[in-house]
Fold each of these.
Amino acid sequence: MERLSARLVSWASLIDEKTLDQAHTTARLPFIHPHLALMPDAHLGKGATVGSVIPTLGAIIPAAVGVDIGCGMIAVRTQFTAADLAGRSLAPLREAIERAIPLSAGHYNRKVVATAEPRIAELEELAQKKRFDPETYAGNWRLQLGSLGSGNHFIEVSLDESARVWLFLHSGSRGVGNKIATHHIAVAQRLARQWWIDLPDPDLAYLVEGTEQFTQYIRELRWAQHFALLNREEMMDRVSRQVSEFVGTAVQEQERINCHHNFTESERHFGKQVWVSRKGAIAADAGRLGLIPGSMGTASYIVEGLGNPVSLNSSPHGAGREYSRSAARRAFTREQLRDAMAGIEYRDTDAFIDEIPQAYKPIDQVMADAADLVRVRHTLRQIVNVKGD
């Protein structure tokens, strides 16, 4: 850990100047308490740095939570081992998962399936309690539950260090969460203009605790966070079903972990109650289990939090990009992607060039930087990878 200023600490050994400048800008806001914490995977984001932990007194910056509210990971350890999958092509399993779950931006379910019904009922009841109608943001939000999205979202079948089979996926609150976030970012920016608030970046516009706008954001934020959690649960149930059919034996869950890495919670740190916005970071309280994925083709980790108070009990959420998507497409080729994915069943397409492992920080370095934040419980290596275009 390095203290870069009174208001900024960093665990990132690999970081560029633009990202540091952005983090310093956010850290100088007067309501940051006690400091902003940069995680090892920190990289440039919109408004606030991805891979940062931002504690605020009496205010929240909606863009510091991000537009994919509640984005995160879920993992299930099954009773299967590598031997249960050996000697067979895994392409049919990948294709079955791709049929069971809508992939890519704008792709949703055609109907509400049986497993989704109780989850949707739960979200409808929660929306009533929060006093808002999610249909004002997305009329088809019910059909979005159980869909993956695109970009760095993925579904994987992996093996741990003992050759046990894990199911692992990454997604968030989909289109409805994006529209909720976008709306409240715009509200915060409008209020900043209305009250002549001079901001170093319009995307650092904030909502003040105690106002109607703040209260409504918190209500809808918490609904979207829960949508994201249930979205992952729904997809995991479908993945489990496809794996069960492929192996010929029902999955028996040995362990399930589901955690956000784009979210806000009210927590007590350094003597004050603050709103902690983790934008690309997971909660890592002492003993809490969490998930840190690598990039497409590299290891992922099941971790246990160490409760480091300076990090505000947080840790990285993944590898963190070194190349933008457009830069990665210019720098790398489909042949390089094939080399990086050797031995992994995946859909061979140009669409994934910007997700090549070389576009990300080396996950081994990220984990080394996080040694005083988390303890590694399991190391996972994927054998099947599913992504949206």
Amino acid sequence: MRKFVSATTIAAAMCGSLMFAAPSATAAPQAPIAGDVTVQAAAPSCVTVKRITDGHLVKYKGYDVTNNCATSKKLKGVFSGGYDSECKSVGSKKKARLMSSQPWVGYDKVVTC
């Protein structure tokens, strides 16, 4: 009986010391690391945006964009309720199609990326 009592006492003492050994720490807010933040500003006014649907049996939503700016722009189609399009570089005086990979999305906007 003595061995059992001393073993449980030691075990309880060890668990108690483990509970108090590591102090709880609250993480301080950290500044964003360069490259972590993606700025998504609205597409410039020199970019023409037209909403489209594409597909035969299933209609996928997207945007046809025309870059009328003097320089190339990186653009992305944003959709509500699903995946956004990939970020695509559109050259000056060029056109591109920004599509969602899901048919049930809603239109939202075109942004720079």
